[in-house]
Amino acid sequence: MTNTLVSLPTGLGKTLIAAVVMYNYYRWFPTGKVVFLAPTRPLVTQQIEACYNVMGIPESNTAEISGKNKPEMREKHWKSKRVFFCTPQTLVKDIEGIRCDPRTIVCVVMDEAHRATGDHAYTQLVRLITDSGAKFRLVGLSATPGTDIKSIQKVISVLNICAIEAKTEDDSDVKQYVHHREEEVIEVEQPAAIDSIRKKLNKLINPEVNRLRGENVSTKLFQNSDSLKPFSVYQALEDYKNQRPGDYRLTANIMALMKLTEIREQLETKGIDVVEKSLQELNNTASGYLGKLTKGTDFQSLFSEVFTATHATQEDDEDAKKNFIKNNPKYEKLSEILIGKCKSIVHMDVQHGRDSVHSIVSMLKAQNHTMLKPSPFIGQSNKKSTSKSKTHEDNSNDRQDLAGMNQKQQQEGLDIGHVDLIVNFDVLKSPIRSIQRNGRTGRKRDGRVVFLVSKGAEKRSYDQSLSNKTKIAKALQSCKSTFEFCSIAPMFAEDPEVIRQKLSKTNFRMSQVGGHTPKAAAGVSKSSRNKASNTDWNFRYTSLIMGVLFQHLFVVSTSNPENAQRQPDFFEGVEIPA
Asked: Considering only CA atoms, which of 414, 409, 410, 393 is closest in space to residue 345?
């Protein structure tokens, strides 16, 4: 029994593995507590159903712990129940609030274990349980444990992982059990307007980069300014804060640069209509240094061109619809794909931004196709979006012509059901997101995945994502030579002492073990009957001993006997002859 990291693509049985492991530890340690953790409540609920339906863990011994429960009720559950389902944040609070004794925990199952980095609640939790002196084992579940070798090693170190079990859909012992999933990359041309808009954005960005370089703010800014990413600017801001504490002269400049690079990235991945919304928001609300930039001639020239390219999309006439699609060719290609698949359940994935989701839904509704009924499926930041999520769930159960638009908050881990087609409207470099997205299809029947990729920067991002995915798969297959694993103390003593339990029971009857002795047939001699009786007794006595063994009547003495002892009520009082 070692701490193990299980890496399986979405849909290949991580939920079942968790249920089996939890049930075994539930049986092996009759007074120990078993905990399943997931970063979101929907994932917690999903696992509860699996444990009830797959393994049959008694409902009377389980509890879902969440912030909705009062602290007094949670404390009562921790004292009376044995199997728990909760988010890591809730468990951390209960341990720190002395409502849960971590020393009683014998097994922890972590879903989406790749999150165990930095100061995440998973990291805090492992530290709290370990520091308490608990003897426990941990199983981490993830489609991909990290975005690269370094991040996977961090997860291994944080969770004290001793072994990795990794499988891919291409493995020979897995391939026969999965449905075929076809993947297709469709490259689309960028509209001519995008080149002109990009040049005007660069005209705003380059002077800001040059000024910050002149102030020697960070080495992160000494790269081609035409391809500078928002994350590099964010890193430059962190460098500036760390190297010059208390100096805020250039903070507004860096923040303005970050916003402008974000808009340029939107242009390359989402289209002109999303950029127009971002520029409109800046024009109306920006203040300080950024507000000063928006009032300049360069920004107003940019805004005017973007508005000219997209303003007709707000109208309802045919020319407006054509103009809307013209300024982002992905919309036209998406419409063709979905209308051709309108008899199936389709799932759209969008990297980030509610505006992108709602723009796609609006475009599809404008098609007025009788069989195409798009519905957004986004994060729950407010009551309205929660309602939308529920509508998507209801519709996916009731009709077979749904196109669901998904934002990244709802991607991770959730089993969305029967999906025939996944359309990736944008591309992610992260192999974690990529595997989780594509794993939504091909579960119950063959599926198809389509990547809509703009030529240029986005195509290069797609190629990089594919390369990262391949590297990580190879590293996991050769994990012993790639990663440095942890060594942990055994849960049991190295030289366990076997304790024989003496049992006695009055009025012992044979039927309590193997049933009644069958009557001898007519004409059978007395000696034959005695021989048959002796044979039957031997069989039943052996059955009793085997039953005693399997009921843990031989108990292993450990440093924590309370967790290891088992006293089966059924055999209490039985006296075994010497």
From this structure: 393
For the purposes of burial, counting CB atoms within 10 Å of the CB of 507, is it exposed (0-12), middle (13-18) or buried (19 or more)?
exposed
At 199-229, the pLDDT tens digits run 999 999 999 999 999 999 998 898 888 889 9
Q: State the sign of the Cα–Cα–Cα–Cα dihedral 215, 216, 220, 224.
A: positive
Tell me the DSSP string of 303-364.
HHHHHHHHGGGGS-SHHHHHHHHHT-HHHHHHHHHHHHTTTS-EEEE-SS-HHHHHHHHHHH
- SS3 label, residue 563: helix
In this predicted model, what pLDDT tens digit does every residue of 534-570 receive, in sequence order? 444 444 444 444 444 344 333 443 344 444 444 344 3
Residue 33: closest CA among 120, 100, 126:
100
- Residue found under tokens 């291994």: 156
Whole-angstrom Cα distance, residue 295 to residue 283?
A: 8
The rounded distance, in Å, linking the Cα atoms of 487 and 163 is 10
CB 377 within 8 A of CB 406: yes
Q: How far apart are CA 59 and CA 48, in angstroms?
A: 10
Q: What is the separation of C-alpha 270 from the centre of its chain, rounded to a whole number of angstroms?
A: 25
Q: How large a percentage of the chain has pLDDT more than 90?
A: 27
| CA–CA distance, 103 with 89 (Å, rounded to integer) | 18
Q: Which amino acid is at 125?
A: L
Structure confidence at residue 473 (pLDDT)? 83
Rounded Cα distance, 503 and 483, in Å: 50
Query: Distance between CA atoms of 105 and 86, rounded to whole angstroms?
Result: 14
3-state secondary structure of 320: helix
Q: At 480, which amino acid appears?
A: K
